[in-house]
């Protein structure tokens, strides 16, 4: 579900906007960044707590 929700939200991003996805699902932490990078977005993943990751997504304007 995180991938589908993120893809729906990405359509609404402006050039300077950032989408932040918080997840406790380890599979989404691995697969979501891969899928989003293939779509041409910049992705940064960081662990914010035990078993919780923050995935920051930005448009790749370069």
Keywords:
2 helices, globular, 3-stranded antiparallel beta sheet, 3 strands, alpha+beta, Translation Initiation Factor IF3, 62 residues, single chain
Low-confidence stretches: none
Cα-to-Cα separation, first versus last residue:
29 Å
Q: State the domain count.
A: 1
Radius of gyration: 11 Å
Query: CATH superfamily, please?
Result: TusA-like domain
Largest sheet: 3 strands, antiparallel
Mean pLDDT over the full residue set: 88
Number of helices: 2
Biggest sheet: strands side by side, in what order?
A: 1-3-2
CATH topology tier name: Translation Initiation Factor IF3
CATH class: Alpha Beta
Report helical residue fraction: 25-40%
CATH architectural label = 2-Layer Sandwich
Following the backbone from N to C, one meets helices and strands in this order, namely: HEHEE
Describe this structure in words.
With about 60 residues, the protein is of the alpha+beta class. The protein has one domain (about 1-60): Translation Initiation Factor IF3 (2-Layer Sandwich). The chain is about 35% helix and about 35% strand. It has helices spanning about 1-10, 25-40; strands at about 20-25, 40-50, 50-60. A 3-stranded antiparallel beta sheet has the order 1-3-2, covered by helices on one side. A hairpin with a 2-residue loop joins strand 2 and strand 3. Helix 1 (about 1-10) runs parallel beside helix 2. The longest helix is centred in the middle third of the chain and has 13 residues, at about 25-40. The radius of gyration is 11 Å and the shape is globular. It starts with a helix and ends with a strand. The mean pLDDT is about 90.
């Amino acid at each position: 579900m995180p991938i589908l929700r993120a893809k729906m939200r990405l359509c609404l991003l402006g050039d300077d906007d950032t989408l932040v996805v918080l997840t406790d699902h380890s599979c989404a932490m691995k697969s979501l960044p891969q899928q989003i990078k293939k779509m041409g977005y910049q992705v940064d993943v960081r662990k914010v707590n035990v078993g919780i990751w923050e995935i920051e997504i930005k448009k790749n304007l370069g």
